[in-house]
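SEVERITY: medium
COMPONENT: batch folding queue
REPORTER: lab tech (J.R.)

DESCRIPTION
The queue accepted two submissions in a row. Attaching both inputs and their returned structure tokens so the on-call engineer can compare them side by side.

ATTACHMENT 1
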Amino acid sequence: MSMIETLVAQGEQLAATGQLAQAKDRYLQICQIAPHRSRFWFRLAELQYDLEQFADALRALEYALRLEPTNASALLLASAALLETGGYQQAVQLADQALKSDENQRLAALSNKSIALLRLGRYQEVLATVDAVLALDETQPTAHSTQGSALFSLGHYEAALDAFDRALALRPEHSGTLINRAATLRVLQRWEEALAAVDAALTMQPDSPPGLLNRAAILLDLQRYEDALASLDRLLHQQPSHAKALANRTLALLRLGRLQEALATMQSLRATGQSVAEWVLTASELLLRRAQPLQALSWIEQGLVWHPDHPELLRGQIAILLMQERYLAALPVAEKLRQLTEPTQTPARLAVAAAFNANGRFAESLVLLNELPAAAIDNDWQFHAKRGEALAGLDRFNESRQSFETAERLSSRAFRASYHDGPFQSRPDDSEPPPVTPELARINFELRRLEHGDWQDYENRVAAIQHWTEAALARGEPSPLLPFRSLFLPLPQSLRFTIARREAERLAAVGHSDRAIGAGTTPSPVKPARLKIGYVSADFREHPTAHLMRGLFGCHDRDRFEVFGYSLRGDDGSGYYRQIKADCDRFVDLSAVDNAAAAQQIRADGIDLLIDLMTYTNYARPEIFALRPAPVQVGWLGFPGSSGARYLDYLLVDSVVLPSEQIGFCTEQPIYLPECYQINDRWQEIAETGCRRSDHGLPEQGFVFCCFNQMQKLEPVMFAVWMRILKRVTDSVLWLYCSSEEAQGRLRAMAVAHGIAAERLIFAGHLPKPHHLERHRLADLFLDTRLYNAHTTASDALWAGLPVLTCLGETFPARVAASLLQAVGLPELIVATMPAYEELAVRLAAAPAELAGLRAKLADNRLRMPLFDTERFVRHLERAYQLMNERQTRGLEPTLLRVEALPVSG
């Protein structure tokens, strides 16, 4: 026997006993001895293929095919090896050569070709090739499976599922087909079946990466995030750098709120060379859906550290900065995005235009928008909205109106919501926002400027707002200045009242109040054992209104009253929400139902008196009241003024906030509480951390004036008075609550213009309520605002022991602090004019003994006088409810009512 024959015999013997590596070594020797023999190279390639040494097998086959270019078996094996090494195009070519070389190899050649075409994404050719395979042999499971994969990729999911089922009928335990079937079922949203299919595959191959990855994806769909993590961690234990597994792990951790772990996983993903921009955007979107814009922005900023020029991240940053009203901060981001993108890139240019419009750069915005290709923007309502906004800013109202009409036609609801609803607000389907007009867009812009301390040419701008509003009202249109916003401007009281009435008329029409399901004056056939009181609010949560009324619900006399809470927003996780919910006899979350369903619920509950705690404040739903679900409907607390509505019967007031000469500015009948219309919570906790002035950036020595009102209550007349006070009281500072860096800068600049050093204005940030109350004790005197007083803010100061100085104004919102001071027994801190306000502030700063006496009086009165006597207030409130109900049960129209004060105990 020759040496070659001996080596061949040894090689085959080794192969027969499974010793493939040793058999391969024998054939390597053979090929060195007889390199001209094609069959030896072919056999070597077979052994290398079986050993998964595909690159080596291809080299061996190259020699074999040089010697026998038409050898169909070698061509087929080479095409199979190329399928394993990614040479799909060449695999198709070799399979075609095999088809031409040997008709007997047709089935195998077509099978290889179909798989290569699948990997190349040539799905229609796959289907034609598979049809040829199945015409030769219908029992080929791989062909059915390949057909299923092509159909899946073409979006024919039901047909793909049928193909996978045929494949599994022929080969039930093929894990790859089971995994593909699971993926198909997942797309069809048949998640439990998908999970069963992938679990069956994993029974056969427990560590299959595709199986584990698909299982995790299905579990993510099922919101079983912990289970998804378990599957992904099994996969990552085998392959720590598996990009898809890391991406899905990031997503699972984000959904679980485990942000730091998600960030660490994202960093691991980035280390694999993958872009993580998509996942940063996903994280920010999830956080925004949870109303966490600060956290969302921090993720975007981290993403921009990794991908500084990523357009989508820059767009996201602009959107969040505008959402936070950080308009100036959005500008440099917009400029960068403008430089990085082409004029034809619509989403980027719309983001830049939004930033320009927000900053009053209307002409530049219009140039950008006009450069966009018509085909991209014809049906884009956002383009027409931003164009209309820019034109309105340029006082081109007629052109602006045309753009707004187009936006309205394309997407009325989204367009209107973009102007009227906050980023985390969604209104029900049967709640229609007011129309968007050039006047409304322009007024909104002017109000934003004012709220950020831009008071340049204040009087003329307020006059323009008044003119635009009066003109719209004269045309019979809804007011472009909304009722709540009107309270912060120096407008005639008659105009404010007209604005409210026009809005109430619009809402009544939208709510179809002619279909009212209750009636205001229909007598109740049976007097209930307990009056059912329904409170409607979106603010049963961490909110100033809840700070006032938290103690109300538990103080009601349950022998005479049954208390219902109707929440217009969901649980925010706060202690306020939990306590109010617990203290109601019944608490109903109406946040996910429309107005008609909410009204039906209230009617079904048999509510006797329904209390609107919001009227026109954020998240209010006055359409519910327009549907008349209760026989008596009352406005109270949240909105300091008349609703202008006929569907509210009464307004809870006191004699200070609504003097008799102003009753004509109410459509509701006033019901006067005897001491103060505003409830307060005497159980509010004040922290005892021992904080010092230095902890809050305040000077240890000197007089500290403070005002913790929101910026929208500040205006130049009041600010000028404060600056005169600071000038007259040396070594004094003014402590303000303002989170806007833009506003802080402007206020400091204005202080300097008044001759006051910028550092004498000190700004406070947000603190939890107990700590916020505690820091009041570091101040000496609270200076109230003029047009819209401190309301909850004044109560906070008085509860914390800080005297409040106020000037009694003309209208309801300008008289609230005076009402509070009367009820706490400090009328000497109420003045009638601004000069008197200035003089008293200066005098108290120079008279420490007098101020100390006021503080001592406040400390003595706080728990003795009516203001913080929550139980006494509730008894008066309950008497008001009884008076209103008695008239209704007698079939009498609502009328002015007064509650007599209870005797003072002790």
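ATTACHMENT 2
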Amino acid sequence: MMKRVRPTGLVSLLGLATSLASCTDLTSEVAIGTRAHALEATAEQCYLVADIDDEDGEDVLSILDKNNPTQRVVGSLGANAVEAIAFNPGTATLYGADADQLGIIDINSPAFRPLGKRFGRGQGALGTIALRDVDGLSFDPATGLLYGSVRRDDATDLLIIIDRTTGAHVPNGFGQGVGYVEIPAIAGNRDIDDLAIDIDGTMYAIANSGGDNDHLVTIDRATGQTTDIAMIRDGEVALDDIEGLGFDTSGQLWGSSGDGNTLYRIDKNTGQTMAAVAITEGEDFESIDCLIGALPGLGQPDGGPGQPDAGPEEPDAGTGGELGGDDWSVVGGGCSASSRAPGVGPATLVALVLAALALGLARRRRTLWSLILAVAITAGVTTSARAQIASDFTLERFRISLDREGVLDSEWGTTLGHLQWDVGLWLGWANDPLVVVRSMEGGDSRRIGDLVSRRLGGNLVATVGFLSWLQAGLEVPLIVSQGQDIGMSPVGTGGAIAGSGLGDIRVVPKVQLLRSDKHVIDLAIIPAFFVPTSTSEDYFGEGAFSFAPELAVSRALGAVRMAGNLGYRTRNGNVLGDLTVDDEIFWRLGAGYRFADAGGPPFEIDLSLTAATRADEFFQRPNNDHVELIGGLQYLFSEPLLGFAAAGMGLNEGFGTPDWRILVGMRFNGRRSEDRLVVAESPLPPQQAKKPACEPNGWDCDGLLDPPDPRGEEPGIDLCPEVPGLPEHFGCPGPVVTVNEPPCEKLEVSQKLEFDKASATIRPHSLEILRRDIVSVLDDHPDLQVTIEGHTSSEGARGYNVELSKRRARSVQQFLSEQGIAADRLTPVGHGSRFLIINPDTGKEDRDRSRRIEFRITAGGKCPLCEKIDIGRIQFKYNSHQLEAGSKGKLDRLAGLLEKRVAINLRIEGHTSSKGSDEYNRQLSARRANAVRAYLIERGITVGRLTSIGRGEENLKENPDDTPVKREVNRRVEFVITDGGRCDDVAHGPLARDSK
């Protein structure tokens, strides 16, 4: 069995900070341009670079057949200081060192393309040293590490390890904080001209003094210590200026001379050489490396993944073997999948991006869309290479919950209401969710290839509720882009893997079993199943039906929300190397804090820990044990639209676990409008068909004489000729809304107060209702004392309902006290389900009406609510202060009341929506209020009893008024009683009233 590197199982959250800092991949490969040529080359070829010392000259690349005197000049590299090259046989990539910078040599151009970073400054026993001149390069075929030797003037040279992705040296390549080791002088020589590593892992080098006294030596790769083999000789003649060194497939060591322009075979045991090939094109060949075309386990042409080595006489030599043997393993990209170097890695970047998202979502809504676009553009420039391997299983581990009540990927234990729906979409980037690692000596492992190096994907989720306990959902996985970088893994090479398509569709019914208002917790069962609809076998889907039932439990405690899921998923037993994708047990734990439920902004912060393991080997195989930690933010832009962003990191090496991920998304729901309390509701009767037999001209047959033109502007006796009405109301129906009859026993609120489910936490919009409807009245009437009565429906245990209603009444008392209302004026009482509005309350709507808060006046009840007169909507022509004809009849009714109640004085207030400028709205509202005042004066009301004012958009009823319906509510005229407004004067009048 393969040796394992790190402890298996769950990773302690206490180590999260350390893990975040150390998730930097040392060995991910960048392969550019050399693959096409290298795959056509033979093991008889070597690459050589002629180093032109003239600053204006450019180095020249050649390909030499080492067994035949043939040399082909490819061309200039565009660089003039390439003194070392190294060939990676796993990716067919040729690297070169141009002084202080690593680059990739594209032989098809040809060109030297520098990587992003320079070698940098290294820390070690000699202090901090600038790594400016790399003269030797070599790949270790056993580990895939790239070594370099650094030339120092008048000092001993240094050995470093180079990150092939960035081009920088690995700052901890030789231990914590040790980025280089010194190569001691040997036989009087301190200059190292080139490196070459044999297939058995031995590092050889040329040591000399300024090009003289060349010795073949070995170097300990861990300590830099040297061992002398012999002076390099041709017979008895000592050779100087051997500056290039490299091994071929058979283990033969080759060297190139700088001055002599000759390619030599070198006996690695004695240092003896034989002149092999004269190099005629170019001069000063300081760099050589030969193709290693058939190393066992490195993409052998006659074998393939999992096949025997290339031939019976090719020893394994410790370089690997079958995929899934004792050395190789297919794992996820979690932090334990490879050796790491501390520093600012991808996870740190994730944290910074997450912070930026939080700020952006708070300030600008379009930040969400900008980030989605940026991620999509980034995905469009990825490149990939395909391994000919089994890949018919799904790789994505993340999902979003079926509806917005869930916590990131943790499902909530409730269902949507009847015919309510929720649609969500997320798009995210996952780094290295499936990689290949190789075990190293000492129990460590090193990543040598990426089967999936990057994936841009997401999910589209749609859910609809049926009844009060059932909902159904559909989840469609989307793969936008993915890439592969085989590196030195033993799985072969080939074409590109599929980059985009659909995964297996997930059908997700949900049945609620328990409710927190009765059973403390919410509990639901989710018997989900997957339909084989994937468009590719490249880690898109399982290729067969699978079943994944799970339980979801949740509980909300005020602003704190907690959810947990436990499930089992059937899978098809696909095998890839030592990885078997089989049935799994999975679970998720989520916790969130909803600031809006505590009176704060519409933010929510969430944290989720997800895990999965083989059902038959519970946390026994690291590459089957998935653990990931994800944090996220949600922001409610408006009632239907919710945006969210999240970032996470893998904590274990199970397949599908990325090094890190980042994602953004949105949700849109179709909730029914919230119930509103209308006081003493008395709806208008339905319009009746006109009966010509009514005498005379009785269009609505209410016994009153109608005007000649029912739709004309001049009123007649019947002010409502199209609907039957009452004579005392001038032919109009009775009041739509009436104030409480004397002796004014209650304070009424304009809308129902709402709380979190099974909680005493008042929802934010209800806090605004309390401020507007109750606080203002209690401020204006300091003698008023009220009892705050909490009521519930009959659903649930009686004792629980009484306690819940008490807690809700106390929450209202506490809020009013915080607004400055003395606590001794407020008495909270919980009645539970004792006083139902509808008894029995068998339906959901009936139960919703019974769940309420009432404010009963216990002292000082001087009918303070009679402060406005409501005659219905007063309408004007568009963008004008000219009254519509229908509104004049309403004002006539108001004038009749004022003639009877001579003690009442009114302030006429004009209001607009927020559409348009503030100044224009104020002027328009003032003109409209004045037009109403003028009309009432024309009808005989004394000028001194009426005042008018334009409020503009100062007091919006609906804020924000971002829909036409809400703006229409805000466009209104109000009649405020400034004097003489006693309840017994107003409540029995022919007009409708509302509370302040």
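NOTES FROM REPORTER
The chain has a mean pLDDT of 76.
No errors were logged for either attachment.
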